[in-house]
Amino acid sequence: MTAPLPVRPPAPPDDRAAGVPAAREPSKLLAPLRETGKLFALAAAVTRVIFRRPFQLREFIEQFWFVASVTILPAALVSIPFGAVIALQVGSLTQQLGAQSFTGGASVLAVIQQASPLIVALLIAGAGGSAICADLGSRKIREELDAMEVMGVSPIQRLVVPRVLATMLVAVLLNGMVSVVGTLGGYFFNVIMQGGTPGAYLASFSALAQLPDLYISELKALIFGFIAGIVAAYRGLNPRGGPKGVGDAVNQSVVITFMLLFFVNMVLTAIYLQIVPPKGG
Amino acid sequence: MGIEVVVEGLTKSFGKQNIWQDVTLTLPAGEVSVMLGPSGTGKTVFLKSIIGLLKPERGRVLIDGVDMVGSPERDIYETRKLFGLMFQDGALFGSMTLFDNIAFPLREHTRKKESEIRRIVMERIEVVGLLGAEGKLPGEISGGMRKRAGLARALVLDPQIILCDEPDSGLDPVRTAYLSQLLIDLNAQIDATMLIVTHNLDIAATVPDNMGMLFRQGLVTFGPREVLLTSEEPVVAQFLGGRREGPIGMSEEKDAATLAREQLSGGGDHAGQPRTVVPQLEPSPGMPVRQGALRRRERVLGMMAQLPEAARTAIMRSYSPAGGGVTG
Fold first, then answer.
1. B209 to chain A nearest CA, in Å?
2. How far is it, in rounded angstroms, from Cα B217 to Cα B21?
3. Nearest residue in chain A measured CA to CA from B10
């Protein structure tokens, strides 16, 4: 058999010159910007569609329950040692400075403002977001989302919006729980383990902490929940080819969310410290 | 009565790879059309472009005044409610039972009562022969059943335009024959415009009113079935004959040198044999007359002068009382 394998013939007459605008090869350098742009576009689309009727109440409740059920226990279990670590560290520091009486206020502020929203967001992204991303991704590669669009149902309205709202609401509620559990953990370790006085702990609490601290904490949780939901949905809606692509998308969604969370947290904290005067000062 | 689909100058590429360019055709209202083509020539892409899932770079797809390529997203979603699309593997929702899958469009787009939804869904389930399986999940049934369930879901909103992506793949010949008959019966009942994308020769020979073929980044022809079935065009003849000799190669097109060698070694023997045009399927007894077929008859008789000789003969034979065909 000497016949050469059939090879691809020369490209068909290239009449691109005659009018067809040749698609310019997109620059590799701009790829991250393009992805970012698409992410923001999805965020804008979701925000717009949130207000469009009919609202998918059933899907929302199902997703809310799902995200809550996978995050509550780990969040509680993580927040106890986290509160304890902060209490121990701050306690030892304040002891050296001779300001033990302020341990309570300092550790509680750290827990409520920083630790709690971050713990919540990490768990929502890690447990809820990854599941959402995998679910949407596998639906995408099985053409379920295409089928939905063909039936005139927008997957963003039907699937993404309830999920994003669910992560947001769970984040806010979970944040309250983590704050309480973390504070109790801190109290326990400071008072029982380090021999702090309960009265001083509680007094410094109200001397340093104020209500806006709680507000910013909840606002952070809300924004982090939104980011976790949007990133998970974005990566889930755009997996790159096949089941392996879905796995990669889940991985990326968690990593991207984490990076975004810490960055946004920094920005929000900086703004908060600028505009809200500290109580003790 | 179905809606006419007008495709004008459609061009689609993925990156640098051009899929097809300048595809222009009209799917006549209420008629059944088949798009043929070797694997990998972008038939499915064509289907998805018609319904607006993929956006071609140039050209228009006009349905009822809405351009599925360039119109606002809102209009496109509205127009999609006129469509029923049967996906290659059904594309059922994996987390829902067959019943819920088929009821999905009704629940999303209508305010019907649950009892009425149940009646309509069970009716469709019976049409596609899935009675008894309505409680199963898509993962628990065979590929052929998934396909039929996908068809039932596509039909549940009484679409004006039905698109079928390879209705035969994964079905045995008997089921394929039943499905062909089902499609024709459906057309007689609801008079929807239908486009079937396939490379099954039986479906191509017996089902459609019109046929087209995609090959080498373009539309080879599109017209009344007899035109393709009697065509001497090498690509069409090779494809309909299912032969190795001709311009279609294993992966892509063959190059000129291979073609020339083939012709020298006498590969073109079959080309001389005239192909017979099999009569088109008729609706089952008891079904209404296909309005699309009646309209097509008028249309085709009107364009006789432009058709090639062989096609003209075949058409005259099919429309003469002795040759079967549409009567009435």
1. 25
2. 6
3. A20
